[in-house]
């Protein structure tokens, strides 16, 4: 497709681990090269772009000016707000993450928070949250689509981008601004171990007989009954697997505050 036909995308990385970019790279329907050659014009993406240093800065400035009001803005990572945002500075002018996303959001046609960090704060926001990490919607005055998940699956990222590209509007959203097509059902609703839950067959400790038989992981901390995401049906890595299939319960990674309230790794 000609450049003029493709939707410009600016992807910013704030306080994050790059897992969401890694997830995007595993897209298969369409794959990431089809996405960037046919549907989007990837103007700025720190993990994928060839440019570095001043040239990268110029590319970003150029894209924000040239495609003012037309570009999609994707943000990966929470925004640190404590000490006037000083916990995250980027580039030669030491621009804070807060200032950067406010500026980029100004000219964006739509804003997508990719992952639980940019949606709700994520692990950076775990108590006592010394950097004041927040979801980007808390510092922006425009609507933000939240793709919860640490990371969200590549299907949920590309599906949301493609929805906007194909229909020119945003998908229907749930109470946390997550697309309903992806986050409309609980993990528990479609889990392949649900039959064992219903039959009262549970893994009691990891490595026991039930674990070998693929029993339900509820008693070893699975939060699937309280978590909205399509992991059991779409899976990850080109539909290869997902946490429960791999033998570990869901830790609620697509939910606000999962890091303090749901994840079993912080319980004694
Ligand atoms: Fe990494 Fe998870 Fe944050 Fe994505 S949401 S950047 S995978 S910590
Ligand atoms: Fe529900 Fe988790 Fe058991 Fe699956 S493993 S049935 S999501 S409690
Ligand atoms: Fe996250 Fe639970 Fe899916 S931990 S990846 S929402 S199964």
TrEMBL record:
<protein>
    <recommendedName>
        <fullName>hydrogenase (acceptor)</fullName>
        <ecNumber>1.12.99.6</ecNumber>
    </recommendedName>
</protein>
<keyword id="KW-0560">Oxidoreductase</keyword>
<keyword id="KW-0408">Iron</keyword>
<comment type="subunit">
    <text>Heterodimer of a large and a small subunit.</text>
</comment>
<feature type="domain" description="Cytochrome-c3 hydrogenase C-terminal">
    <location>
        <begin position="183"/>
        <end position="265"/>
    </location>
</feature>
<comment type="similarity">
    <text>Belongs to the [NiFe]/[NiFeSe] hydrogenase small subunit family.</text>
</comment>
<keyword id="KW-0004">4Fe-4S</keyword>
<keyword id="KW-0411">Iron-sulfur</keyword>
<keyword id="KW-0003">3Fe-4S</keyword>
<keyword id="KW-0479">Metal-binding</keyword>
<feature type="domain" description="NADH:ubiquinone oxidoreductase-like 20kDa subunit">
    <location>
        <begin position="17"/>
        <end position="163"/>
    </location>
</feature>
<keyword id="KW-0732">Signal</keyword>
